[in-house]
Amino acid sequence: MGSSRVEREAPTPLDGGWGWVILMGCFVITGFSYAFPKAVSVYFKELMKDLGCGYSDTAWISSIILAMLYGSGPVSSIMVNKFGCRPVMLLGGLLASAGMISASFAQNIIQLYLTAGVLTGLGLALNFQPSLIMLGTYFDKRRPLANGLAAAGSPVFLSALSPLGQILVDKYGWRGGFLIMGGLLLNCCTCGAVMRPLLGKIKKVPAGVEADAQELKEMLPSKPGKENNAAKKSKKPQKKKLLDFSVLRDRSLVIYIICKFIVVLGLFVPTILLVNYAKDQGVPDRDAAFLLSIIGFIDIFARPTCGVIAGLGWVRPKMAYFFSIALIFNGLTDVCSAKNNTYMGMVIFCVFFGISYGMVGALQFEVLMGIVGTGSFSSALGLVLLFEAVGVLIGPPSAGRLVDIFKRYDLIFYMAGGELLLAGVFLAVASYCCMGKKKRKDSPNVEEPDVEEEVNHANHDSDNAHQAALKDEES
């Protein structure tokens, strides 16, 4: 009686089912990861009064959180490839919460950098990247829509955390607000618990089938050089790399990394310094905090809408150009709003910024998935975030330094807008040149025939020759 071997097929995305639960968890994680560094700016005025620091000093808190979120990407990739998404996310939720709780006892700005900045940022990083990996595993055809809905977590949480933070500051001070925020971050552990791995179906393979397949492969002729490669593969089983640096050989990925580095230099600057700017212009504290809620409310509708448009058949192959349009739109919004000093002008800026910012947020990871695919997404995302960490660590503190020196807020809008415009133009031009070369490279004049096709043609020619010989004998 023949024995059989149990195999598990490669998992296929569900595009639904438990994937919607994964999407909800990614929605919450994205909300905390992107909204929290901006919402914490509500506390900056109180921190400046209590700790005696300036704009650039407090801006470092948000920059360190974002830098850890991005810079810990390779560490997160290695941990995910070794332990899986769920354990890494549970650990990240605990670290993020512990960081904010510890920050509530800080006595100087350096302690805030280490607790609210480094520890909380590391915790958010260990949640953010695994959630995106799980989302890409569960969705394929509906992936642009899923990415857009998950990205909507950022504006939803921004519109909620900003007024909540102002209420907490008024009632409990910044220490009590940090303590309560630390408790809220424990919800990241709940999101990590629902990240169930997607497993393939189990099938039984009879032993004879595998032997026959191997025998048939040996009987077929092979191309020169393939036998040695096959022998090497059979002798040495491939090990899964914890961090695959070979993805950097892709020219499109290098272009994307350069573009995102320029983007993060200015993307977060307006939102981080907007509340302080409004307060310095005489806007009441509650109204100033509400400006971030306006951005978040507009962003809520912008991201899913952009995700639906990105999923259209004629848009998806040109995702890089669509992303560059979003970057240019965001840069023009910053530049055109540099001279706004009235509350109504700030509201109009928030509306347009929310639309353009939502487009950028909805498209950035879809573009990356389209470049490297889901198989290499973990390593590629970790490396992209590492390069972005440098940019995000420079951008907001540099803008705060400009305000401290020149006492002018319009400079930071010009700076941020110019960087976004540069990134958008660079991505469009570089993508056009790269895609043109790739098309010419992928369409050679002579194609090398397949082994099986050569065998079929040879058999067909021999049959024709045999039939011709028989006819000659009959005649």
TrEMBL record:
Pfam families: MFS_1 (PF07690). Residues 19-435 form the Major facilitator superfamily (MFS) profile domain. CDD domains: MFS_MCT3_4. Residues 454-475 have a biased composition (Basic and acidic residues). The keyword Transmembrane helix applies. It is found in: Basolateral cell membrane. InterPro entries: MCT, MFS, MFS_dom, MFS_trans_sf, Proton-linked_MCT. The keyword Secreted does not apply. It comes from the Eukaryota. Belongs to the major facilitator superfamily. Monocarboxylate porter (TC 2.A.1.13) family. This is Major facilitator superfamily (MFS) profile domain-containing protein. It comes from Coilia grayii (Gray's grenadier anchovy).
